[in-house]
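All the exercises in this workshop are built on plain-text protein records. Sequence and backbone structure share a record, each on its own labelled line. The structure tokens are whole numbers drawn from a learned vocabulary of backbone shapes. The record below serves as our worked example for the rest of this section.
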Amino acid sequence: MKGLGRGFESLIPTELIDDEFDPTAIEDKKESQLKELKISEIVRDEEQPRRDFDEEALEDLATSIKEYGVLQPIVVTKEDGKYKIVAGERRWRASKIAGLEKIPAIIRTLDSQNRLELSIIENAQREDLNAIELATAYAKLKTQFNLSTEDIAARVGKSEASVQSTMRLLNLPDDVKKTMVKEKLSEGVMRPLVSADEETIKKVLPKIIEEGWTARKVERYFSETKKKSSASAMKRDAYRKEEDKLSTKYNTVARITGRSLTFKCKNEAELKELIKKLS
């Protein structure tokens, strides 16, 4: 896998393509068939350059498939009575390890595969496409057309970092993605929310919408929040030893917050015992 490394790539979810945000979903359904195929009828593409697959990773995927099934269909074309894999060889191999006899597959002709790839690339170059649709188009090129992030960037005329950054928006919760599209929020405004927890997103998203925050203001908000969190953590670490000593000495839970010292007792008897010791 090309690009900025496996670590960054792993942050981009491409296993599931949501038709709601797929700009070529309707056209794809006209061009493709979704069926369950016998694994024995499927063959790898011998011209596919990737031949080495991490055995441990395949075993992990096989375990997941046993529990949840194959979440994303593989893509094949029919040739000489067999189905040649276009995308999804790893899922096919793991399914065999898992003992599956059949696997969901999108069947396309070579011509329809080429037409769809061109259509997705053309859509990705449209200026009126929202960022979630754009991210979905990139993800589709990656998972169903075996294009690396570098290849996608070259085809749509953007930098590899830009493509990866857009694709990371797919990490947002589904309701947040829908809100982003509905409220026409920009990628720059939403990008900092990708790595935030759901509680933080619920807190800040209404402010972004109601107050019309700019991308810079969102970034500043998260930067300041991070600084406060770091400062708070440093203060807690500074008093951790004292907390432990007091907890041991008085046989209770001691906490130092700001300029306050508190003791937490399990019951009334423990509270009375603590009061005696402090008297």
Summary: Residues 172-213 form one domain.
